[in-house]
Amino acid sequence: MSRATSLADLYRASVQEYTRTPAEWKGLLACVARFYKRSFDNAVLIYAQKPDATQLGTFDEWHDRRVGRSINRGARSIAVIDMVNPNASIKYLFDFMDTNGSVQSYRNLQQLLWELEEQYRPSVMMRFHEKYNTPTSGIGACLYHLVSRRVRDWLLPYMENFRVRDEESPLHGMPEDAVKAEFMGLVELYSAFHNANHL
Description:
Layout: H1 3-18, H2 22-34, H3 40-49, E1 56-57, H4 59-63, E2 70-71, E3 78-81, E4 90-95, E5 99-100, H5 103-114, H6 121-132, H7 139-159, H8 176-196
Helix pairs in contact: 1-3, 2-3, 7-8
């Protein structure tokens, strides 16, 4: 049996299996959403072979000098159909977790994945301004406003029972409202800085 035939059989069996229960269907849809740039057929094949896949690339893409990562010895590839090729040839992908490299190579990867090109910044800022009333002075201020708002929406409920119980902590005995405000400010600042590095 050829590899293409076995992949076709895997696809058919997987579609039947993943549409049987709501849990499996949700798992498949989560994978489709994660790899939204790939075809549905290939997302099914990815999910069937490695359901916890995160970021995928070919051998050449991982070894590209702009990324600079290497594939671990013995790593198993994920076979998909190369839809760009008129002959529908098989393409082999490797997950990020099956690669290794420096911290800088990870940063390089994130920048390639999430970099916002200069030409799109004004329109992105204007859409955020119209929907969330964010500042338009720059993408950094826009992002900081969005992150701050999101952090407060998600963090406030978790901060209701916040207490400094460790008597050895330098924060013990300080006004709880002040400690909460400082903690939230640090989370906002970290989140905004982390996301700004990808723009």
